[in-house]
Design brief:
32% helix, AB_hydrolase_1, amino-acid biosynthesis, eight-stranded mixed beta sheet, 379 residues, Homoserine O-succinyltransferase, EC 2.3.1.46
């Protein structure tokens, strides 16, 4: 590793691509005839192939979870605070795999990929994805990498839902499930926020029914609004108050509707602008729908304990006190169901002011607990 990188960094990493030719049946009734998954690995797979950890990303995440793609990259991967030598997911002990899910816009087959049937981008013709579909595709990736059983599947938010689905769909292929800032299904309020974000995109004049790429445009305004709405829900009221308060951009008010007067307005517009330049609108629609559809207990008349009756993995569930998007009460639903199903589970509710985004932030108590659990399972 180059000395230009921090000592606890995985250093320079190169994304890899795997092509799959076997059709993948999907929950929506369609299938993907062939597809590719982009992923990164950190650390080494041991001789027994027993130290592999899968990282599942959240709504706007991707495969680049740790390290750097070049010496000039300003920021490391999105979960670099938790992955690397001596970090909670210690790459001296674990072989870590992080991928971009199907339907994504960071290299894996998705709406912006070319549809072999038409030679044009899939756009709105790309099939709807579910968390279960992703897990099935991830199982094929595991097969290709020689991983018969994960030491752990780990994820926050939507990633935590994938980790839970792994324990349900492939109970013999996962020893530990870490679901962080997650939920067994979305609340009506969460679905409502997702619908507002989707409507912002769908009603953008430059969305063109999802086929905007063919016209050489993007629904920038819709994407910006979707991100702004979403970002508000990722932060707590206290976090926003502490960061911005009612701070002004200048010393006086302009008394009009168009000026960016408050610091928080400037922040949200920046977040929207940055996001609209790097994320695909159809992928955003797809990811939010996957969130909405996740409800594994629906097959058991809403009985989550019965849903989890067949899992073999030990669980670690973590939540954050000020997370109102995926509140601690939702994590306790998972814990209570696991206890009712007589499964091994540990639970930690971390006092943190940052809201839902806390799972991405190196909070000392969080990192300590995370490290303690992962140290227990290292082989």
């Amino acid at each position: 590793m180059s000395t230009a990188f921090p000592q606890d960094s995985v250093g320079l990493v190169t994304p890899q691509v795997l092509h799959f030719a076997d059709p993948l049946p999907l929950a929506c009734g369609r299938s993907l005839a062939d597809y590719q998954l982009v992923y990164e690995t950190y650390g080494e797979l041991n001789a027994a192939c027993s130290n592999a950890v899968l990282i599942c990303h959240a709504l706007s995440g991707h495969h680049h979870a740790a390290g750097y793609h070049s010496a000039d990259e300003r920021k490391p991967g999105w979960w670099d605070s938790c992955i690397g030598p001596g970090k909670p997911i210690d790459t001296n002990k674990f072989f870590v795999v992080s991928l971009n899910n199907l339907g994504g816009c960071n290299g894996s087959t998705g709406p912006s990929s070319l549809n072999p049937a038409t030679g044009k981008p899939f756009g709105a013709d790309f099939p709807v994805m579910t968390v279960e579909d992703w897990v099935h595709s991830q199982a094929r990736l595991a097969d290709a990498l020689g991983v018969g059983q994960w030491a752990a599947v780990v994820g926050g938010s939507l990633g935590g839902m994938q980790a839970m689905q792994w324990a349900i769909s492939y109970p013999e292929r996962i020893r530990h499930c870490l679901a962080i800032a997650s939920a067994p299904k979305l609340s009506a309020q969460n679905i409502a926020f997702n619908e507002v974000a989707r409507q912002a995109i769908l009603t953008d004049p430059e969305f063109y029914g999802g086929h905007f790429q063919e016209r050489g445009v993007i629904p920038k305004r819709g994407l910006m609004l979707a991100r702004m709405v979403g970002h508000i829900t990722y932060l707590s009221d206290d976090a926003m108050g502490e960061k911005f308060g009612r701070g002004l951009k200048s010393e006086k008010l302009n008394y009009d509707f168009h000026s960016v007067e408050f610091q928080v307005e400037s922040y949200l517009r920046y977040q929207g602008e940055e996001f609209s330049g790097r994320f695909d609108a159809n992928t955003y629609l797809l990811m939010t729908k996957a969130l909405d559809y996740f409800d594994p207990a629906a097959a058991f008349d809403g009985n989550l304990a019965q849903t989890l009756a067949g899992v073999q993995a030990d669980f670690c569930v973590m939540s954050f006190t000020t997370d109102w998007r995926f509140s601690p009460a939702r994590s306790r639903e998972i814990v209570d169901a696991l206890i009712a199903a007589r499964k091994n589970v540990c639970y930690l509710e971390i006092d943190a002011p940052q809201g839902h985004d806390a799972f991405l932030i190196p909070i000392p108590r969080y990192l300590q607990a995370f490290s303690s659990y992962m140290n227990r399972i290292a082989i």
